[in-house]
Every structure is written in structure tokens, then in C-alpha cells.
Amino acid sequence: MSHFSLDHEADYQAWKTQKLTDYPTRLADLVVEVRDPFDLSRGEVEAILSRCAKTNMALFCLTHPERIHQNPLPAMTARLGISEIDHNLGADGEGLSSLTPGGSKHAPFAHYIPYREAAIGWHTDGYYNPANHPVQALCLYCERPAHEGGENDLLDHDLVYIQLRDHHPEALDALMRPDAMTIPARLENDGAIARPERSGPVFSYTLSGLHMRFTNRVKSIRWRDDDATRQAVEIVRGLFAAKEPIQFRGRLEKGWGLISNNVLHTRAAFSDPPEAEKRVLYRARFFDRLPRTP
Ligand SMILES: [Fe+2]
Fold first, then answer.
1. What is the pLDDT of residue 245?
2. What distance in angstroms lies between residue 10's CA and the mean position of ligand 1's atoms?
3. What phi, psi does 23 have (nearest 5°)?
4. How many angstroms is it from 169 CA to the middle of ligand 1?
5. What whole-number distance in Å separates Cα of residue 120 and Cα of residue 221?
6. Which of 67, 74, 229, 262 is the most exposed place for a label (fewest CB within 10 A)?
């Protein structure tokens, strides 16, 4: 996909014009009503995929969530055309993670932040994956929202790329280096290496699209040790703070979900009363991107 190459200016300008024309401005523009998630209609599939092609994300909203008693993500994602599920350690046998306090299937992960109630800053999923095996699609389904909180901010990473390319090309260049960002090894309690150190670029691209690998956390991450990279990270953080380019904010309610090409996102802290049933969100990650058309 040559328009993401810094050498192909005319292709980039043409892509950008198309990308920004009629770009949605309201969360509601992203929402597709779904009648039966186990039997998506052609119109529902087209509505979801066309939004993903435009903004890298779509939200879905079941018209009858009370009729659904099992996680619909496997059926929906198969119908939408993605299949290379990431069987990560916190997931169950189908590759689905239940994001609920204490919900990790892998005991050492139970204290990890997705399985707690704390806020999570801007990131894309799988930022610690090998650079040649990134999480391309991220899908969520809300079975039960929290009593309070748990909202998400969402930001199309293509727009961050455009901001950098147009206003800070040297920063973009720094973030496309293969050693821009390094996640240190994860060690077991006995010191054995559970996951080796991983380095990779923030922005990379293939024929099917742009990928962003990012976390705003400051612990357990090592940025390339030079001024260009440090300045680039500050510029990206400044974009988040300025809410420019456009960010969407909303909360997945019961029967709502996200289908995305692993867009940037946050999660607000949430809480449930001590005796109440806890928030349950299902997550599925894929190594393939959503097709642009059915
Ligand atoms: Fe995430």
C-alpha cells in the first residue's frame, strides 16, 4: 500500500482526500443495529464493514439483547470474514477473553489491568506482540455493563498518521523505525522468560492497511533512546490531550459491541456494588483485518 510510504506523496494525498471526505463526527454515525447476531443479514454485514473501511471501527447494538444468552462474537466475526483468532493466555479455549474482575483463564494474569476495575490509558491491543504478528482486529461484546463507569474513548489510528505526516513528518519517520518501541521481557516468578523482549515500529503497513502499535503507559516500555523518538511520543500524547483529531467516546451497554481494526482506545475506571453481578465484556483479537466488502 504505497500511500503509507513517505516517498509516495501523490498517492498519499489522494488517499487522504478520500479518507477525510464525509468522515463521521458523531458516535451515532458508527452504530449499526443488529437484529440477530447469529444470523447477520447482508445489509448488517455491509453496514458494519463499510464503517470499518471508513473509520476502522463500527459499533453494533442488538435490538433484542435479552434474547441472547451466549457470546455472539464467534458467530459475528466469522460472518464478517475474520478468522485468525489470537489464542492469548488470558483467553478460553475459543480464544475469547472474559474481561471481568478476576476473569483471566491464566492465573498470573488475574491482577493484570484488563481484569481489574482501573482506568486504562490510550493503547492498541497486543502492543507487546512480535512486530511481524500484530493484532489486526479487536472486537468486544458487552454482556453486562458496570454499575458505574467503563466508558471507552476511540480514535482511528489512520487520523493520527495523517496528523503526523502533515505536520510532523520527522516524528512519523521516527515512529516507523523498527526499534522505535521496545517492551521488556515478561518474567515468571522464578525468573524464567515467559515472553521475550519485543521491539517494533509504532506505525507499519501492509497491502491491507496501516497498523499502529502503541501504549501510553510509562512503565514496562522503552522508547528508542534519541530526541526524535522522544519528541514524536510527546506529539502523539499531545494529540490525545487535544482531542484532535476526532475521538469518539461512549459506553458499551448491554448487547452493544465494537468491531474494529484494532483502533486506539482507552477505558475509564468502573465499579459495581460489592454484592452485585460484575461487569462482563468479551474480547476477541484477530491476526487478520476486516475485509472492506463482504
Ligand atoms: Fe485494549
1. 87
2. 34
3. -65, 135
4. 27
5. 15
6. 67
